[in-house]
Amino acid sequence: MPTKQGDLALLDDPVAQELLRAPLPARLAYVWPDGTPRVVPIGYHWDGQDLVIGTPPGAPKVAALRRNPKVAITIDTDAFPCKVLLIRGTATLETEPGPIPEWVAAGKRMMGEELGTQVSEQLGALVPRMGGMVRVRVRPEWVGIIDFQTRLPSAVERAMAADDVPAPVAPGA
What we know:
By secondary structure, the chain is of the alpha+beta class. It has one domain (8-155): Pnp Oxidase, Chain A. 28% of the residues lie in helices and 31% in strands. It is built from five helices and seven strands, in the order H-E-E-E-E-H-E-E-H-H-E-H. It has helices at residues 14-21, 60-67, 101-111, 113-124, 154-163; strands at 26-31, 37-42, 45-46, 51-55, 70-76, 84-96, 133-146. Helix 3 crosses helix 4. The protein is globular.
């Protein structure tokens, strides 16, 4: 029986590990001060405990996260069968004078070593003029996986369980 959705042990699942290491952006969802939801694609670094994001202090999300630090994050693929890692947590923020190492690592993971280094150096030169960089740490408090093979969206799983329908097998599985 698969690990229950919400369990932090899902971070050790091969699907979660694959997505955390993949050259994919995360999507960060947070609440704007007027109460409306926002979601932005963003680079990240997984340090084994926290998902770490680097952003300028003047970025609109910084003020929103200081007001309400509760966030949801998804990292997902777009090829079927889609793989989705869902994380909920609370953001903590700390400002540094220069580029944070996690931001540099995220760039290299997403763009490759050479281009990631080049972009980090170019944009990193702007960081002091922007007032430094904010390190946004999100420690997972809830984790979910949807892989459309062993784990489906919860409403689909409930309907299948009620009708005793077997899980679909994705092509190539």
